[in-house]
Write a structure and sequence with these properties.
By secondary structure, the protein is mostly beta strands. The chain has two helices and nine strands. The strands form three sheets. It has a four-stranded antiparallel sheet, with no helix packed on it. A three-stranded antiparallel sheet has the order 5-6-7. The longest helix is centred in the middle third of the chain and has 10 residues, at 80-89. It is globular.
């Protein structure tokens, strides 16, 4: 049996409305404790597809367009900065200030229990059994990612691709 997260989670529609916990049409999740809104990945092809990966780039350091920057639906310059800008442009769940979460914020989503995938899949379907980028970096070439398959923190070269789950402070 999985341990419970300390947060109260709510499913949120693309229009920013709170939905029932049984809804499968949610696009975001509100953490009522931290007042953070989390992006939910989709199985459909497109901007939020669960299979899209990105290199780490913040406009100053990282990789804007490298060998691993072709694994998203637009197939070029698939980097974290471009993704944040794209999600911000669609006002997902009526939020406008999307960003990469910190390592500490991402770790609040980890649920340790009997499943290999360490996240509440009722709220975060389509999560990959891989690592997700955080905004933390060790230096100009290495950033911190959080794996959702065993819960520890890792660091990876920013030129490699990883998954992204964005967060916004609730409006």
């Amino acid at each position: 049996m999985a341990s419970m997260v300390n947060a109260k989670l709510f499913k949120v529609s693309d229009r920013g409305l709170i939905l029932s916990n049984t809804s499968v049409e949610h696009r975001c999740v509100l953490d009522d404790q931290s007042k953070l809104v989390w992006e939910v990945k989709l199985s459909a092809k497109g901007l939020q597809n669960t299979q899209n990966t990105y290199t780490w780039f913040d406009g100053k350091t990282g990789t804007k367009n490298g060998d691993y920057s072709h694994n998203c639906h637009w197939a070029e310059s698939c980097n974290t900065q471009a993704y944040v800008q794209a999600i911000g442009g669609i006002n997902l769940c009526q939020q406008t200030k999307w960003r990469l979460p910190t390592q500490a914020e991402l770790k609040t989503l980890l649920v340790y229990g009997d499943n290999d995938l360490l996240i509440d899949q009722q709220f975060f379907p389509n999560t990959q059994l891989k690592s997700y980028w955080s905004s933390n970096q060790l230096n100009d070439h290495i950033a911190v990612d959080v794996p959702f398959y065993y819960g520890g923190s890792e660091s990876s070269d920013k030129s490699f691709d990883a998954y992204v789950r964005l967060v916004s402070d609730a409006n």
